[in-house]
Amino acid sequence: MQNNDQKPIVSAIIIVGVLIAGAILLKGSKPPTPQNLVNNELPMTTLAPIGDGDRTLGNPKAKVALVLYEDFQCPFCGAISGLEPNEPAIQYLKQKDPSWTPFMPEILNNYVKNGKVLFVYRDFAFLGPESIRTAEAARCAGDQGKFWEYHDYLYSHQNGENQGNFSDPHLKSFAKDLGLSTTAFNQCLDGNKYAQAVTDSKNEGDKAGVTGTPKGFILRNGKIVATIDGAEPLASVKPKIDAALK
């Protein structure tokens, strides 16, 4: 029979174990360092202008745009998508802030769909080879008009980094699950059609000062007015979008 005096010790061990597991899960996925304002101005950065090569949702003529750099293996990117409510990254963030909620569902449903904000997704594949291949694969899906379906599928099926979950055979299987032409998709992926584009996007992110994901830039009439640094909660992102719309 267990001594009652030992129960607090056992509970403490369990809590430490959970925290260690969370730390292991999120290793290598450190969110970007927040940018400090100087004289109420954002630091100088070179952000590539929005162009035809970008994957976008919403009104291309909207005065406000959200440019978001992400990595398909990044658990924090998966968390802000809100596509998998019970994923460990969300549980980790809620441990730090019980009121934390993902911002992307609100932004997409109440700002992008009504034409107020243009959403721009950009690759920042920095977590390893499977990050690069998933970015290429999503672009290949885009050739068949299913970039966003593939995007959502990837964020709904994260399971560690560079452990084979996003290996080429699995990426091809995902395309089949989504009803894509597997012949065309496999030719695109095997031929490394978008390898240079993914590299270029990473380099552009580097020039813009991106050091981790997710990293967002809120633009009004093409000028940066605010940033999103890491997996910020909806409560901090929404006021930034609202201020940009004024």
Could you please describe the fold and organization of this structure?
With 246 residues, the protein is of the alpha+beta class. The protein has a single domain (30-245), classed as Glutaredoxin (3-Layer(aba) Sandwich). The protein is built from ten helices and five strands, in the order αββαααβαααααββα. It has helices at residues 7-25, 75-81, 88-96, 104-112, 129-142, 147-155, 168-177, 182-190, 195-207, 234-245, and strands spanning 55-57, 64-70, 117-123, 215-220, 223-229. The protein has a five-stranded mixed beta sheet with strand order 1-3-2-4-5. A hairpin with a 2-residue loop joins β4 (215-220) and β5. α5 (129-142) runs antiparallel to α6 (147-155), α5 crosses α8 (182-190) and α7 runs antiparallel to α8 (182-190). The model is unreliable at 1-30 and 33-41 (pLDDT under 50).
